[in-house]
Amino acid sequence: MSTTSERPAARTGAIGAGPRRVEGPAKVAGTAAYAYEYRAADAAYLAPVQATIARGRVAAVDTAAAEAAEGVLAVLWHGNAPRLRTDAELPGLQQPGELHVLQSAEVHYRGQPVAAVVAETFEAAQHAAALVTLTYEQLPHDAEFSAGRTDLATPKEDHRQGDVKAAEGEVVVDQTYTTPMQHNNPMEPHSTMARWDGEAITLHESTQGAHMVRETVAELLGLEQGRVRVVAPYVGGGFGSKGPLHAPTVLAVLGARAVPHRSVKLAATRRQMFSLVGYRSPTVQRVRLRADAQGRLSGIDVTATVQSARLGDFIEEAAGPAKSMYAAPNRRMGHRAARLDVPVPTWMRAPGECPGMFGPEVAMDELAVACGLDPIEARVRNEPERDPATGKPFSTRNLIACLREGADRFGWADRPAEPGARREGEWLVGTGVAASFYPVVPPVGGSRALVRHAGDGRYVVSLAAADIGTGAWTALTQVAADVLGVPLEHVEVRLGDSALPLASLAGGSTGMMSWGSTVHAAATAFRRLHGDDPAPGAEAAADLPEVAHRDDYAMHAYGAQFAEVRVNTDTGEIRVPRLLGVFAAGRIVNARTARSQFVGGMTMGLSMALHEESVLDARFGHVVNADFAEYHIAANADVADIQAHWIDEHDPLVNPLGAKGIGEIGIVGTAAAVANAAYHATGVRVRRVPLRLDDFLDAVGA
Amino acid sequence: MNPFDYRRAEDAAGAAAMVADNPAAAFLGGGTNLVDHMKLGVAAPEVLVDITHLPMDEVEALPEGGVRIGANVRNSDLAAHPLIRRRYPVLSQALLSGASGQLRNLATTAGNLLQRTRCVYFQDTSTPCNKREPGTGCSALEGYQRYHAILGASPDCVAVHPSDMAVALTALDAQVVVQDAATERRVPIARLHRLPGEAPEHDTVLNHGDLITAVELPDMPMAVHARYRKVRDRASFAFALVSVAAAMSLGADGSVSDVRIALGGVAHKPWRALRAEEALRDGPATEERFAAAARAELAEARPLPGNTFKVALARSAITATLRQVHAEARGGDGHGGPGGHGEEQR
Question: Is residue A664 annotated as part of the catalytic site, yes or no?
Answer without folding.
Answer: yes
